[in-house]
Amino acid sequence: AGKRPTIMSSGHCYDDFILNNPGGTIIDVRPMNGITQDPATKRWKLETGATVGEMYWGMYSKGNVTIPAASCTSVGLGGHISGGGYGVLSRMLGIAPDWVSAADVVTVDAKGHVELRHVDKKHDPDLLRALRGSGGGQFGVVTAFYSDNPPPAPKEVAQFNVRFEWNDMTPERLHRILWL
Questions:
Q1: Which of 1, 15, 6 is nearest to 78 (CA)?
Q2: What's the Cα-to-Cα distance from 166 to each of 7, 64, 94, 153, 174, rounded to whole Å?
Q3: Given the DSSP bridges, would you call strands 141-147 and 102-108 parallel, antiparallel or unpaired?
Q4: pTM (2 d.p.)
Q5: Which of 58, 67, 104, 151 is the most exposed place for a label (fewest CB within 10 A)?
Q6: 62: Cβ contacts below 8 Å, ≥ 6 apart
Q7: Residues in a beta bridge with 6
């Protein structure tokens, strides 16, 4: 219909790409939020409407495994994984897309035909690579990511924040804070 589509997996977006889409169409995948493991194959299915927090809890409580992702648990998996997936465990385990082995994605061809596709290293491997961190929603609507062998969850994670008054900041003070 000539409208710019915007995919919403949680609504969390620093750049306001989701709700600020005048005349566009929002495709809301939040109801697709399952975190499941196939008992036969042990493959994890991570639906893109789930948040990082739901993914962490689901994978940990059902299998004591995880994939490295954001520290902000309200971030949606769809945008986070397809947008790069850096997070608190990345130095130890890499980024979230490193652990994605397949995806379900809805694509539209030049004639307007809609197709649900399952992509992996044998079926459309170039599309799978594109969905694994290179542009958040540019190649179709991802409905699920799959992970075949995620790493064990760490026993503990330490996270802290440093805050300072920006009004009193000078280039010299900022350099001392960042390079001590």
A1: 6
A2: 34, 40, 32, 36, 9
A3: antiparallel
A4: 0.84
A5: 151
A6: 35, 36, 37
A7: 26
